[in-house]
């Protein structure tokens, strides 16, 4: 099964190259050049992983991460940055990022993280579904 990935970065050349390389690995990749556009895509579609640039104009990766987690807590987000610091990494993880990766990202390592995101999301969605079924059964006294 193909992993569905949303790749978000304000650098169109980076997006094009990464998306092409990820598609070559049989991933279903959607791209976005802004956090606000990505939030619209996430509101209407489901992705196994969102790979998002930490520094973007308008809304940065941390703000976007928090907005996504508020509406779609099951979404697995990996932040990319060209200027990694321990403080940024800690901030990202506290905000709910699955991982924090420094550019240029090693595609083999990133692919493994995407597969883990896919599995983690599947477990979360299954648990949410079970909780909804139990809630409905209780509601009807079963």
TrEMBL record:
Residues covered by the Response regulatory domain: 4-118
InterPro entries, alphabetized: Bact_response_regulator, CheY-like_superfamily, Sig_transdc_resp-reg_receiver
UniProt keyword ATP-binding, yes or no: no
4-aspartylphosphate carried by residues: 53
Annotated keywords: Phosphoprotein, Two-component regulatory system
GO biological process: phosphorelay signal transduction system
Protein name stated in the entry: Response regulator
Lineage, broadest ranks: Bacteria, Pseudomonadati, Thermodesulfobacteriota, Desulfobacteria, Desulfobacterales
């Amino acid at each position: 099964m193909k992993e569905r990935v949303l790749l978000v970065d304000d650098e169109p050349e980076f997006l094009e190259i990464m998306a092409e390389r990820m598609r070559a690995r049989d991933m279903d990749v959607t791209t976005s050049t802004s956090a606000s556009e990505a939030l619209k895509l996430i509101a209407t579609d489901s992705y196994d992983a969102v790979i998002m640039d930490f520094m973007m104009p308008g809304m940065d990766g941390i703000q976007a991460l928090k907005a996504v987690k508020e509406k779609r807590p099951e979404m697995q987000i990996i932040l990319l940055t060209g200027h990694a610091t321990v403080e940024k990494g800690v901030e990202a993880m506290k905000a709910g990022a699955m991982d924090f990766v420094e550019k240029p990202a090693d595609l083999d390592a990133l692919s493994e993280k995407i597969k883990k995101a896919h599995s983690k999301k599947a477990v979360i969605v299954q648990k949410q579904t079970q909780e909804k079924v139990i809630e409905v059964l209780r509601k009807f006294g079963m």
